[in-house]
Each structure stands twice: as structure tokens, then as C-alpha cells.
Amino acid sequence: MSDEPRDLYYHDLFQDNQHLASGTGMYNQKPPTIAGSSAYNSQGFDPSYMSFTECLQGPMDYNSLASAFGLSPSSSEVFSSVEGNPKPIDVGDLGGGGGGGGSDNLVTPNSSISSSSTEAGVEEDSDKSKKDGQPKETEDGGESSKKVGKAKKKGEKKQREPRFAFMTKSEVDHLEDGYRWRKYGQKAVKNSPYPRSYYRCTTQKCTVKKRVERSFQDPTTVITTYEGQHNHPIPATLRGNAAAMFPPSMFTPQIRGPTFPQDFFVQMPQMGSQGGANSIYSQNLMNNPHQQYQLPDYGLLQDIIPSMFLKQEP
DNA sequence: CGACTTTGACCGGCGC
DNA sequence: GCGCCGGTCAAAGTCG
Predict the structure, then answer these.
(1) How far is residue A193's CA from residue A169's CA, in Å, rounded to a whole number?
(2) Is A132 helix (H, G, I), strand (E, B) or coil?
(3) Coil, strand, or helix at residue A273?
(4) How many alpha carbons fall within 13 Å on the CB side of residue A153?
(5) Where do Low complexity bias regions lie (predicted)?
(6) SS3 per residue for A24-37
(7) Relative to the CA of A174, which of A99, A153, A198, A218 has its CA 20 to 30 Å away?
């Protein structure tokens, strides 16, 4: 399984919206000079990039972008098309796809990379063997009530929430996105010296999770994977914090022309590419950290992305 | 003292 | 069936 590149993000809407790409050719464009793009190529990423600016300033309007993200324009059925999609939405596997060798994620979509760098794996294995070889039995007097929450019926596969993955050029692993997150785990990533962190939204009844890892090929790139949909607005208290990191204008759709603090990548499936092919579609949103970008009227990135996970309560 | 992080252990899925 | 592996739990530690 590890030989086959996996879809970072799969969404039928991409097929539905293929006219967007075929009509404009934007998805077929070669990117402009992109810092670090070679790393993505070497990772097996599709070399078709476009800048987020191009995307936003191009013919794609908010609805198109929303559709590209899997949003319905109304945003009240954010993932309805996903849920109704009979095809496997395997974004959930980008971080490993569950156990069983599904360990290849977007960090290692390329088998040659997987086979060529094993240092992290070795470390992890030794660590694991240490742990697995010495099962600790003393804590609860042998009672394994620790994992009661994970109990589920036999044969009932846990349903994965739809996921979105973003690649962000940043020195900070955990990027502020306006929501409150609690870290609940960290794991060594196979074939990578960088660990993967697991976060959960701290808001009650919100089941959204977030996974953050750093690309071992391009350590300046942070890969953030969101899973699920927020059922609440962004905490007001955090808007300020986020605004401290991101320009305030990013949170006010009325204001245009923010300066993004870092390159921002959005990974999406490549148009027309499916099946065994590497369907990863990377967009380079910002090539130059210091460059100013004009965002169109339909909102700013930071408004778009959180809204992707906002689901109205029934 | 509450919220959050760290970290070792465990669970379950999957491939062999 | 076994082992690997990603994901999660939860106790302990840290921080403000």
C-alpha cells in the first residue's frame, strides 16, 4: 500500500467542477517560481501549482473556491456531498489511513522516499519494541477500563469525518486558526524525524480534530489536517490572538489586501487525476512571505477556512 | 487551581 | 495469527 500515493484530499466536487479548471486552464498551469517546490516534486507531489492569489484573483469566485474546498455555497451543508459520495473519501488516510502499513501520508507519497529514509522508523521501532515488550500492567490493577471510550460494536467501522489538509510554510508547528485546540497526542512519524501532533477542539460537543506535522522533505512546511466540522463559531477570545498572528484584516472580510505571514499551501486533488495516480493538488498560496496579496471581496483566507468546518446544528 | 502539554501505554485495523 | 502502525487515552507534569 505504501507504494501507492494516496489522495491527500478527495472530493467529488472537484470532478463536478472540472469545468472550472478546464475552462480556465488554471489547474494545468505550471507554477511560477516557488520556493521549496522542488521538495514537493521530489515527494511526488504533482507539480501543478498556482498561487493562491491567482486562484483568488482569477475567475474562481467564492463559490468556486468553496466548492473546491468541498463547501456548498450556502455552507449549511458543508460536507453533504461528501457524505453522499459513494466513493471512498480517503483523505482520512493521508495521515496513515489507520494502521496496517497505511502509514504513507502526504509526507511520503513517494515510495522511493519511504524506502530511502528509515531513520525515524528505526527509532520508532526500537521505542515501540521497548514499550510493547514491556506491557505495563500495574496502574489499574489489571483493569483495562482505560479505553472504555473506544468501545464500539464489532464489525462497525468507525466512520471518518471528512478531512482537509493544508500545507503551510511556517516555523511554528501549531498555527493559530482562531479555534481553541487541546493537544491529546503526539506520535513519531514514520520516515520522518518530525513528530505528528494531534489536537482536539476544546469546545464542548465539538469533535473536530486537527493533526499537525512537519514535512521531513521541506521542514519549513507544516502540514495541517482538519477532521470534522466545527459546530460553533470561532471563540471570540481567540480572534484577538489569531489576529495577532495574522493581520487583522484577515478576519474582516470587508477589508482587503492583507499581508500573509507565510506561504500558505492548500492541497487539493489534481483535476482529472484519480485512481492510482497521485491526485494531490498543491496550491502555492503565497510565494513570497513579504509580498502583499489582494484578496477579492468574497472573504479572506482565514474566514474561508474556519467556515469550512462550521456546521449548523440541525 | 484550571487549562493545557507531555508521554507511555493501549486499541484496533490492516498486511503478511 | 502475528506484528506493525496510526490513533487515542489518561496520568503526570507544567504553566499562568
Answers:
(1) 17
(2) helix
(3) coil
(4) 3
(5) 74-83
(6) HCHHHCCCCCCCCH
(7) A99
Beta bridge partners of A268: A281
| Residues at the strand B interface (Cβ < 7 Å) | A 1, 98-102, 130-131, 134-137, 144, 146-147, 150-152, 157-158, 174, 180-187, 197, 199, 202
The string of pLDDT tens digits covering residues A230-288 is 877 777 654 544 444 443 333 322 222 222 333 334 433 332 233 222 222 233 333 33
Question: Cell 506561504 appears where?
Answer: A263
Question: What's the pLDDT tens digit per position in A62-78?
Answer: 333 334 443 333 333 33
Q: Which residues have CB under 8 Å from A305's CB, separation 6+?
A: A69, A166, A177
- Could you tell me the strand order of the sheet in which A181-188 lies? A181-188, A195-201, A209-214, A221-227, A163-169, A264-269, A280-284
pLDDT(A198) > 90: yes
Q: How far is the CA of A182 from the C1' of B2 (A)?
A: 14
Query: C-alpha dihedral over A268, A273, A274, A276, to 10 degrees?
Result: -110
Q: How confident is the model at residue A219 (pLDDT cuts 50, 70, 90)?
A: confident
Q: Where are the beta strands (DSSP E) in chain A?
A: 163-169, 181-188, 195-201, 209-214, 221-227, 264-269, 280-284
Exposure of A2 in the CB half-sphere (CA atoms within 13 A): 18
pTM above 0.85, yes or no: no
